[in-house]
Amino acid sequence: MKKFLSVLLASLVLLLAGCGVSDQDIKESIPTLTLTSEDIPYSIPAYSYSWTVTDRWGNGSSMAADTAHPLDAQEDLTITALTAGAEVALEFSKTPDSVSVVYWSADETDYENSTQLDTQFLDGAFHFTVPETAGQMVFSITGLWNSYDDVSGTVTYCFSTVG
After folding, report:
1. What are 92-105's pLDDT values in tens digits?
2. 8 A C-beta contact, residue 140 and residue 101
3. Pick from 34, 39, 69, 142: CA 20 to 30 A from residue 127's CA?
């Protein structure tokens, strides 16, 4: 009987140990972003995030990645060829509850001097129009997920345009 209880206890410990959410699980659950303009798709990687995954028992595990301001990391950003006035569609692997799009001129030095763009949700994607601005630009797209049972958080995706 003692041996049976020991085996049962050990099995329970192993079972519960396997119930947690790993860092890899969290990273893999962060939504991906595909930006499409003029029928050209661009995969934009997550730049920074604060993300929580909740397992089926209601246990949450969180992870955050903080990065340099995108104006300071332009050489590391995905480069896109967006045309002034073109419509851009933002398709996420998991639809966010809201999206914010801001941009700076690439030679801007004041981080606070960004311009917010209007977005609209249409046909399963968020959309914005590329501003009529000359030169290279740096964009920051921030999605907020708070209506899902299994994930929540904020993810920012950054990219630049060719001049």
Report:
1. 999 999 999 999 99
2. yes
3. 69
**pLDDT tens-digit profile of 102-155?**
999 999 999 999 999 999 999 999 999 999 988 899 999 999 999 999 999 999
Q: Are 155 and 31 in contact (CB under 8 A)?
A: yes
Site of tokens 């959309």: 127
CA–centroid distance for 28 within its chain = 11
21 closest CA partner among 54, 50, 48, 68: 54
- Which among 34, 107, 46, 26 has a CA at the least distance from the CA of 72? 107
Q: From the CB of residue 93, how many other CB atoms can be counted at a distance below 10 Å?
A: 10
May I ask the CATH architecture of the domain 21-161?
Answer: Sandwich (2.60)
- CA 84, CA 86: separation in Å to the nearest integer? 6
Structure tokens at 66: 């903080």
Strand locations in 46-119 (E): 46-54, 60-65, 78-80, 87-92, 98-105, 115-117
- The model's pTM is 0.86
Q: Which residue has the tokens 């601005």?
A: 133
